[in-house]
Amino acid sequence: MEAELVLENVGGLSGFHNLKFIKGAVNVVKAPNAAGKSSVIKAVALCLSVPYKSRRLAEIARDMGLLRQAGEAVEPLVYIGAKSARILMKFNGEEWKLDLFKDGNYVHVREGEERFLVTSLLTRSSPILNKLLKGDVDFKWVVEAVSLADRYEIVARVIEKEKNKARDLQMEVERRINEIENLKKEKITLEEAIKKYRQEENELSSKLSELLANRQEVSELRKQRDHLLAKIKEQEEKIKKFSESIKELKKRVEELSKRYEAKLAEKERLEEENRELLKEIEATSKKLKELDEGLKNYEERLKEIGEQIEALRVEEGRLLAKSEMYEKASKLLAQSQKVLCPLCGEGYLTAKRLKEEESSVKRQLGEVRDRIGALLNERNKIYSKLRERDELKKELEKLTKTHSETLRKLQSFEQVLSTYLEEVKPIHERLAGLEARLKDEEQLLNKYRDELKEVDKSISELGKEEQIIVERIATLRGRLEEAEKQLKRIEKMLETRSYIEIIGYRMTLERAKKVLEGWLATLDGVLRSIQVEARKERIMAVELFNDQIKKVLKDSKFDYLDVWIDASNFRLHVMDRRVGVEVSPRILSEAERYVLAFIIHVALKLAYSPYPPFFLIDEIALSLDDTRKRAILNYLSHLAKENGWFVILTELGREPKITVSPSTGL
Amino acid sequence: MRADRSLATSLLEEIKELVKARISEEALEKLVEERLNNKFKGLIEQTGGVKGGS
Q1: Model confidence over A591-607: pLDDT tens digits?
Q2: What is the pLDDT of residues A572-582, one digit of tens each?
């Protein structure tokens, strides 16, 4: 039967690699230096051991270069040029697959045996080999890693933490109980003080009563004083009422005044408007009068102008006719040398004379027309003034109307304002009456106060002893009040501080104390049991190892050594039976130390993780002489056959690529 | 107050089961803390603790 290993971009191996291993045999992986032999061994180990539930084993995986250390950027088993690596191992019909990503994440198809790292993988960075090299024989860590002791220890730490929390709570409860005790003591002291103050106050009051009874005069004065105080109080009430009434009335007057002021302002504005209107009316009337003056006898003048224009039109016609005749005469004169005068019909006209006559007629015509124009102009002016007069008349009417309206408004204001005065006048009268009364009452009050001063003076002179007692009583009362306040505060504190809240549950301090005592006792019991379990696990692990290693030493023919772990201190002991001396691994030769590490691994493998059935050794030949190497190979071959293991070794090869072949021994 | 024997026994059994379960050490810590908390609550309720604020 074979196991098939498929690697894709694993460690120093880029691309796909397919390797086959024979069950029950020693399989030798050969390749030149830096060709990926160790990557094959690490890949198989990682694939068969992840995930690591134990922090200790995860740390070992990092130390052995199977996983990256904190702070490293990439996974050591992911080929440098790839984003992820895949390791697939098939055997006995099972499939173990691991996808490993550059960022440290990985996906596995089935859970591996995490102890495989300590039991089934021997490389130069194996922790056991390294410890032996340093002479470190404390094997407690191995015992704990292969057993459940580590996990029991974790539980024990959690319980210790819980115990610490419970102890802290217990201390808090104790502190609160002490606090309550102190508060109770303080309460008793205060109660006693209060009782003492009250007793003292009673005694003083009795003494005061006695004194007052004995002093008739003081008693009379006190009565007088009380009477005066009552009167003063009454008087003060009265004054207060008067003051309030006065205040109310003043407020009312103020409101009315405001309204009056507003109306008055409006009235003044109207009066101003009225004055402006009157001015305007006056100006318009003056203008109208002037126009009327200018238009005096305008009808006669229009008639005259009409007649003059008519006469001038006649003259114009006559002159036009004359002009036309002269025009005809000019035309005739152009045809003959002589022309009869067209006006008189006598005599002949010369061309010169005709021209003179013609221009004379034209000049006269122009003059007539100018005069007509002037008359028309004058007539138009008269018409224009007439229109202006009409407009002024209309405006004057309008102004007069507005004036009348303003006057009407002013009249209504006068009425309103006179109403105000009617309204305000009685208030003022009442106000004056009240103020006078107030003055009288204040005088009376002052009189009472003066009288009171006199009485107090008499009392103070007569009752100094009583006064001292009264003052002492007052002081006592002050102390009493303060003590009572403190007592209330303490009682409240006692009420609130007597309870405590633990994980959301409220309870009395006494109950909390009992619960915590019980819980701590329970935790102690559980912790002891857990420690017993952890110890049992360790001892069982040691016994199993010791039994197994005896067998291994015998079967491997390395029985000149005796190796065991002391169950009391978990130290590894190595005895060379040939000389009967216990030796330190540190002083052993490198080959002997390697043999020791080998047999320890085999014993651990047989004892704790026989499955998965792989045993891996990287670079076996480096430090071994032929005899030891042969012995180891023979024993591995025997183990493989007997247990059905796949033993995989790496060796330096000459061929440029990785090959796998069964071991042929030396 | 003395230790509650039955409480201790049941707690121990639960813890043993958790120790043997195939869970990570982180998960083991968390689950044990939870169990302890639950048992403590149970103990308080058993002795008359009242849930809720003051």
Answers
A1: 899 999 999 999 999 99
A2: 999 999 999 99
Residue B53 has pLDDT above 70, yes or no: no
Nearest Cα of chain A lies from the Cα of B52 at a distance, in angstroms, of 6
Which residue among A151, A501, A521 sits closest to B28, beta carbon to beta carbon? A151
pLDDT digits (tens, 9 = 90+) for A73-103: 888 999 988 999 999 999 989 999 999 999 8
CATH no. for residue A393?
1.10.287.950
* Least CB–CB distance from A154: residue in B4, B28, B53: B28
Report yes or no: A514 at the B interface, CB cutoff 8 Å.
yes
| Least CB–CB distance from A506: residue in B24, B47, B52 | B52
In a domain, B30, yes or no: yes
- Domain match, A255 and A403 both: yes
- Residue A424 in domain: yes
Q: Establish if B16 belongs to a structural domain.
A: yes
Residues from chain B that touch A51, judged by Cβ atoms under 8 A, are 24
Res A580: pLDDT: 92
Chain B residues 17-46 within an 8 A CB cutoff of chain A: 18-20, 22-25, 28-29, 32-33, 36-37, 39-41, 43-45
The number of folded domains in chain B is 1
In the predicted model, what is the mean pLDDT of chain A? Answer: 90
Strands A646-652 and A13-22 turn out to be unpaired
A133 found inside a domain: no
Q: Return the residue of A nearest to B23 by Cα.
A: A53
Of A158, A159, A501, the CB nearest to B53: A501
State the best of A526, A528, A535 to mutate against chain B, taking most chain B CBs within 10 Å. A526
Number of domains comprising chain A: 2
Q: Say if B51 falls within a structural domain.
A: no
Enter the tokens of residue A93: 């019909």
**How many C-beta atoms lie closer than 10 Å to residue A527's C-beta?**
20
Using an 8 Å CB-CB cutoff, list chain B residues near A530. Answer: 12, 15
The beta-strand segments (E) located in A472-559 are 499-502, 505-508
Confidence band of B1 (pLDDT split at 50, 70, 90):
low
The residue out of A431, A459, A487 marking a domain boundary is A459
Question: According to the model, what pLDDT value does residue B35 have?
Answer: 96
Q: Is residue B52 part of a domain?
A: no
Rounded to the nearest angstrom, the gap between the alpha carbon of residue A6 and the centroid of all alpha carbons in its chain is 55
The C-alpha atoms of residue A408 and residue A404 are separated, in whole angstroms, by 6
Q: Which residue has the higher pLDDT, A547 or A354?
A: A547
Residue A559 falls inside a structural domain = no
Measured CA to CA, the distance from residue B2 to residue A571 in angstroms comes to: 39
pLDDT at A621 > cutoff 60: no
- pTM: predicted TM-score of the whole model, two decimal places: 0.59
Residue A531 lies in a domain: no
Among A400, A425, A459, the domain boundary falls at A459
In percent, how much of chain A has pLDDT > 70? 98
CB contact under 8 A, B47 and A55: no
Task: Give the model confidence (pLDDT) of A545-579 as tens digits.
Answer: 999 999 999 999 899 999 999 999 999 999 999 99
Instruction: Give CA separation, A246 vs A240, A258, A437, A441, in Å.
Output: 10, 18, 11, 14
ipTM computed for the complex: 0.94
B contacts of A152 (beta carbons < 8 Å): 19
CB contact under 8 A, B32 and A526: no
| Count of CB pairs separated by less than 8 Å, A with B | 110
CA distances to A535, A552, B20 from A144, rounded to whole Å, are 10, 21, 14
| Domain boundaries, position B25 | 5-46
DSSP A68: P
Asked if B32 and A151 come within 8 Å (Cβ–Cβ), the reply is no
Contact B19 A148 (CB under 8 A): yes
> Nearest-CA neighbor of A139 among A563, A558, A610?
A563
pLDDT at A219: 75
Tell me which H or E stretch contains A7: strand A2-10
Domain with A6 in it: 2-116+611-632+639-662
Give the DSSP letter string of A186-242: HHHHHHHHHHHHHHHHHHHHHHHHHHHHH-HHHHHHHHHHHHHHHHHHHHHHHHHHH
pLDDT band at A624 (very low <50, low <70, confident <90, very high): confident
Q: What CATH number should be reported for the domain holding residue A55?
A: 3.40.50.300
More confident: B52 or A103: A103
